[in-house]
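Entries read sequence, tokenised fold; example below:

***
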Amino acid sequence: MDILQFQQELVEYSKTIGIDKIGFASASPFEELKSRLLRQQELGYQSGFEPKDIEKRTNPELLMPGAKSIIAIALAYPSKLKDAPRSTRTERRGMFARASWGEDYHHVLRDRLQKLESYILEKLPDAKLQSMVDTGELSDRAVAERAGIGWSGKNCAIITPEFGSYVYLGEMITNIPFAPDTPIEDQCGSCRACLDACPTGALVQGGQINAQRCVSFLTQTKDFLPEEFRTKIGNRLYGCDSCQTACPKNKGIDFHFHEEMEPNPEVVKPLLKPILSISNREFKETFGSLSGSWRGKKPLQRNAIIALSHFKDISAIPELTTVLKEDPRPVLRGTAAWAIGKIGDKSALSILEEARLKEKDEQVLQEIEKGLNMLNN
């Protein structure tokens, strides 16, 4: 078979199954990425969610013996929420980042990659293929950059000329010697809009991120949120878009190509107070299809409490008091105590003093003290 001709046919086919951009890269080791990952490890900048084996993350041959090339795909997702519900003084709302709008993108990309696999195997039954999306060992961004999908921006996202950085990425290792595409030249130049927009200074420098300070990572943690970050996350329930919305390359970008990615405004910009008492079943029914639900309800509930404190929502004091008195999870009780103190309603002092007498958990008691100190200052 003429591989070049088949490659062109594959590109044409990809357009018919809802792949917005496709590129091809060699499967040689990612040496520069390896150096970068080792440096991140030394500095303690990793999130802990990454695969641990750096050799496997940077050498496709270890994942699939006989690897010759990698196919990279990108799907554009929406950046603007149509008919967004309004947040009011007594009905405050939280926000999911754009990458968690619509159906979980892992499922959407796997669907496209499976269709691509079927097409290849129909033409080349002996082909070896291995697909992955986000949770695989390979770095989606490094593959996409090498395959000419886009350049790696200072915000550590792949920026495409057509769709900005609002793209989901996936890849497929193959033993087919496809011709590699040419990487795109970096177009960030001297711009530092994303670095200046980062709420916590997580973008250490262009292309380097301290994941431990990244709001997107912090919203997914399950423990007490360090106090310095509580005032930084605002009403974010999951993820952060600040470094994307600040990027000039994303100005005016908004694509609605895929039905599965269309967000339900009431789900991705939900009322905060009901989240505090949501049952497991209600959580699964309401948020279960979002990628932002993968860590369960506890981080989202903690973030909702912090968001209510951000708004200084006095109307939420009864719900926060119920959490403080009745929730079995110390992280939520303690965060509620801190939030009650931050909101500073006239009833807060008696609520916190009563809780201090009954609470047994040391960390929760510390949060009650923080709340009381805010009231006394």
Q: What stands out?
A: The chain has a mean pLDDT of 96.
